[in-house]
Amino acid sequence: MQALLQQIENYKAEIAATNAITVDEVEAFRIKYLGTNGLVKTVMGEMKNVPNENKKKFGQILNDFKIFVQEKYNNLKESTSDTTLKTDDSFDWSLPGNPAVVGTRHPLSLVRNQIVSIFQKLGFAVAEGPEVEDDWHNFGAMNLPEDHPARDMQDTFYVNQNPSWLLRTHTSSVQARIMENEKPPIRVICPGRVYRNETISARAHCFFHQVEGLYIDENVSFADLKQTLYFFVQEMFGKDVKVRFRPSYFPFTEPSAEMDISCLICESKGCNVCKHTGWVEILGSGMVHPKVLENFGIDSNKYTGFAFGMGVERITQLKYRVNDLRLYSQNDVRFLKQFTGVV
Ligand code: DAH
Questions:
Q1: Is any atom of ligand 1 closer than 6 Å to the C-beta of 261?
Q2: Is the minimum distance from the CB of 212 to ligand 1 under 6 angstroms?
Q3: Shortest-distance atom of ligand 1 to CA 171
């Protein structure tokens, strides 16, 4: 016991006399005295050999020793950084730092992901397909035979090397691929990029993004379609938004309807986005045409279904008031970074 106390006094003297100038020397001190295999740990280990009646007193001494070493270490550390500061006057510590530039998600990806997650809540799975398609999946199977006038609604890019290939004009082609490969019940959404031969302007672009949906089962009705889309709109735009359905025409659905929502930009007072009507169209929809079902061997007497398709750019425009489609593909960070953390 006496020997150990003497030993501690010797260590203290040695430590008190230690001088560390460089960062490395301070670190060496830390390892030697305070490290996992350092002296303080070893001395602490002696506690088990101390008779019980002395344990309390000895514990106190050991503790003081530890604090003593720790304080010495802190002093050494402080004086080292001080010397660095004092000696290295070539460095201007008041200079602003270089901020790390962090990328952000594209607004269209944010909105696409939000649309997808709303439909996932309703049990829709996500399906994707090729952007270079054949005529059958893009048109023929969707009840748009070659001479069908409705093909003009979607001006198509054909692939030079093989004119039976085209850039898909809508993601209905993915619906076709799903019906080809799966049996009802089918409940999918198909997000993706589509292409049309349009002159680029604030209101049109030669590519844009869609999310289409398809639900086929027994007893699926137009009421299911309305309720599903109403749920979507409320999740996306809030509870106050109003919806209305207008009869429309799509070759792959019968009956067909377009859905409008009350204009969020002017709160239906009238502006150029809603063309002063108070309403903006956001999607096309309808009950899947029996002919489309039959094209894939799905019994149209047993099964019915609904489908819908919306443009991601349009939804983003209404949500974030982006009024020029070209902004989405210009990659200007001043535009892109405005959407950090908005969804
Ligand atoms: N494919 C249509 C378009 O690109 C949108 C659409 C309308 C999709 C009705 C559908 C639908 O699935 O049922 O304009």
A1: no
A2: yes
A3: 1
CATH for 107-339, options being 3.40.50.2020, 2.40.340.10, 3.40.50.2300, 3.30.930.10:
3.30.930.10
* 3-class secondary structure, 259: strand
Distance 308 CA to ligand 1 centre (A): 6
Residue nearest to atom 10 of ligand 1 (CA): 308
- Domains in the chain: boundaries: 2-87, 107-339
Q: Residue 290 corresponds to which tokens in the numbers above?
A: 């029996």
pTM of the predicted model, to two decimals? 0.72
CA atoms within 13 A on the CB side of 65: 25
pLDDT 10s digits, 234-247: 999 999 999 999 99
Tell me, using a 6 A CB cutoff, whether residue 111 lines ligand 1: no
> What residues contact residue 165 under an 8 Å CB cut-off, 6+ apart?
132, 133, 134, 158, 159
pLDDT tens across 142-200, in order? 999 888 877 777 789 999 999 889 999 999 999 999 999 999 999 999 999 999 999 99
